[in-house]
Specification:
By secondary structure, this protein is mainly alpha-helical. 52% of the residues lie in helices and 4% in strands. It starts with a helix and ends with a strand. 12% of the residues are buried.
Amino acid sequence: MKTKLLKVVTCVMVISILMVPVYLIAGEKINLNTATLGELTKLKRIGPAYAQRIIDYREKYGPFEKIEDLMKVKGIGQKTFDANKDIITVE
């Protein structure tokens, strides 16, 4: 019984690790001020259209001063910010 439980726990841990994005494992954050469209689409809840809005916003208004400024982009609200706040930076 202990062996079966150990196997189940091990499988769950392996699956959990595989689901973590590579950039999180490496400890690298996505910089909102320098990220390409492709890099921005790696963010949760951000597809190509929203990634382009982020790029357009920073081209029009200049660099983001703080990560919370992401919510100034049309269509990006608290939920999207909360989903990404630990993996984005402006530095």
